[in-house]
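Q&A log
Question type: sequence-to-structure
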Amino acid sequence: MGRILQQMRSDIRTVFENDPAARSRFEVIFTYSGLHAIWGHRVAHWFFKRRWYTVARTIAQVSRFMTGIEIHPGATIGQRLFIDHGMGVVIGETCEIGDDVVIYQGVTLGGTGKEKGKRHPTIGNNVVIASGAKVLGSFSIGDNTSIGANSVVLREVPGNCTVVGIPGRIVKQDGVRIDRLNHAQLPDPVVDMFRVLQGQIDKLEQEVQHLRSQTIETLTNSADEAYSEGNVNWDKENGQAEEKGSPDKEGRTDNAQSRDEEERQDKDKDTKDKNSKEVMRA
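Response status: OK
Response body:
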């Protein structure tokens, strides 16, 4: 009897350590559904270990009805477990939970199939599992690990890690324990990836701008050189630069040659017209 009372006092102290809203022992004992679920599970687990399975499941179902927290009587729970706002929490039959674990509402510690034997996760010590997180399968979650809200963890996680996302990804592992109650400040890997992509886009835009400036400078220099060497004529009427033709043996350019050719053609035409008139007169 003394051991049972000592265990109950430890559970009550755990509530005060983890919930700043707890005001008095009376309030904790009579109004905290997470505490009631843990006490109910300990009774059901005692019967389950002695193979009184129906009695154990009946007690677990009554506890589920009263608290909204479903803990299979076969699950193994360590010391100082704290279930905060526990509505919707589900803990499977072969699940093992270490000491000083904090679980928030909507958490599922379940399996992924119909296999027999060990099919639920093993949770280490000092682990925080935030609201709506799902840990599914037979693997271990290391000590001092935080699992972010609504994460879905499908594989083993080493100790001293922070896991977020769907599926769960390790976003921090440096051996430093994260504040157990600061689960709202976990890093967001999606936002971090967007920041990386934005940085790459900015870098590409700078490179494109640099190449554009170089191209404009090169074209401007080429035009200046051509104009200074006398290879370009400026057309005042059209406001455009025209490239000069290459000079012939007499030093005339293509433009001059073209004008001479037009003059010769005009002279030949006039000569033909004059001859044709003389023939008609004769």
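Response note: The helical segments are 2-18, 25-31, 33-49, 53-67, 189-228, 254-281.
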